[in-house]
Amino acid sequence: MTAAALPLLEARALSFHRQDEPVFGPLQFRLRAGELALVEGDNGSGKTTLMRVLAGLLHVDEGELLWCGKPLDRDACQGEIVFMGHQLGLKGDLTARENLRVAIGLHGCVGGLAPDLTLQAVGLAGFEDEPVRQLSAGQKKRVALARLVLLPARLWLLDEPYANLDRHGIALVNELLGRHLDAGGAALVTSHGAVGFHGGEPQRIRMHA
Amino acid sequence: MSRAPLSRACAAVLRRDLTLAWRRRGDIAMPVLYALIVTTLFPFALGPDNALLQRIAGGAVLVTVLLAMLLALDGMFRSDIEDGSLEQLVLAPQPLALMLGMKILAHWLTTALPLIVIAPVLASMLQLPAAIMPVMLLALVLSTPMLSLLGAVLVALTAGTRRSGMLLALMLLPLCVPVVIFAAGAISAAQQGLPWVAPIAWLGAALALTLVLAPLACAVALRIALDA
Question: CB distance from B12 to chain A under 8 Å?
Fold first, then answer.
């Protein structure tokens, strides 16, 4: 197999336990560049935990995670994976633009993009200098989406990206996802609602409690 | 695509924390006001005996500054943990220990530096002779970063627990004993006209050690806190 054909992320018999209680697993999936996987499951089925394990915030208990065919080495693929969780990681006292600048300082930036343009693209034109604290929940989510677009990462881990968003926001998430996949990225998205994704039928990962 | 160079990442974290501190300037004033009030209490409690005040001045200012710093220490990582910023920092493609070092530097600049600036005022309220001030300032400049660094490790360790303020004080204060002994030792040696370089040199050596080790320990502790 050539490097391009290798899955970006592969999980083999991945499972996670919290104090000997199984949280999820064992899970099996492969995610290639340009593919989207939907993680489905009821409340408490371990969707967020799976995301945190994949992001590297929690340790892999059992099973194996492969990145481009090799055992996942966090130092080697740092910055390749971005995570957007329930807590967006935005500072309320900083403006939208300042928040994005911090992220760019830490991660670098996709060439040709700038915070202001990206904020316009997610429908926040005119809110660049507003402290994030004063934005609505949906607008905060849009700032976090702008950050996703700016960062040069290949794998997006999105935990409930549709929460708090209006109809246009949901369409925006789908559009951003589509563009990310077209550019050779991959994404894992959790959602318990129905998601209207246009770019073909996504892979589905079922979680059982 | 361009990856972020280390210097830009350090500058970004430092600037972020300084901007946040500036947006909440009131919080910076708290430890300063606390130190002022505590120092004012000494002459009231001990009586206006200049010789006695002069003798305790160095130690009293040191302990006051230490306790004032403890007030602000608790919040070092709290808001970052609550709003998920810390997760983003952990996942950033940068050495976490260095990024935390920048956070600790920002914390020192916003809490300890104002205290060092008013320390001569505090000391003169307690009749410390002006000739001793440089030694006292030197002792403070070396000992306060150590408290910030040690404090950061303990804040990281207690990050997962609720109401960690008291626990933090109980854990940090014993660690401060050697710092206080050497810093106060230098000041009292200077007051008696004895050589004071040795205790200052010890403080410097200890600072060099904590400067290297504390951010590493802090990074490990925070990873564990997020893992829980």
Answer: yes
The model's pLDDT over B39-71, given as tens digits with 9 standing for 90+, comes to 999 999 988 888 999 989 999 999 999 999 988
Contacts of A55 in chain B (CB under 8 A): 87, 91
Residues B136-161 have pLDDT tens digits of 999 999 999 999 999 999 999 888 77
Q: Judging by beta carbons within 10 Å of its beta carbon (0-12, 13-18, 19+), is residue A183 exposed, middle or buried?
A: exposed
Q: So where are chain A's domains?
A: 9-189
**A107: number of Cβ within 10 Å:** 26
DSSP structure class, residue A132: G
Cβ–Cβ gap A106/B20 under 8 Å: no
Whether B139 and B203 have beta carbons less than 8 Å apart is answered as: yes
Question: Nearest CA to CA, how far is B154 from chain A (Å)?
Answer: 20
Residues 35-94 of B with CB under 8 A from A: 79, 82-94
| Helix ranges, B74-132 (H) | 78-82, 85-91, 96-107, 113-125
Q: Residue ranges of the domains in chain B?
A: 6-227
Q: Give whole-number Cα distances, B93 to A152, B6, B59, B99, B218, in Å.
A: 11, 10, 44, 11, 17
CA distance A88 to A45: 21
Lowest mean pLDDT among A184-188, B38-42, B125-129, B156-160: B156-160
- Show which of residues 81-100 on chain A sit within 8 Å of chain B, judged by CB atoms: 81-83, 85-94, 98
Q: Does A150 lie at the interface with B, CB-CB under 8 angstroms?
A: no
Which residues, in sequence order, are bridge partners of residue A108?
Answer: B3
- The architecture that CATH gives domain A9-189 is 3-Layer(aba) Sandwich (3.40)
Q: What is the pTM of this model?
A: 0.91
- The predicted-structure confidence for A60-73, as pLDDT tens digits, reads as follows 878 888 888 888 87
**Which chain A residue has the Cα nearest residue B94?**
A106
pLDDT in tens, A128-174: 899 999 999 999 999 999 999 999 888 999 998 888 888 888 889 88
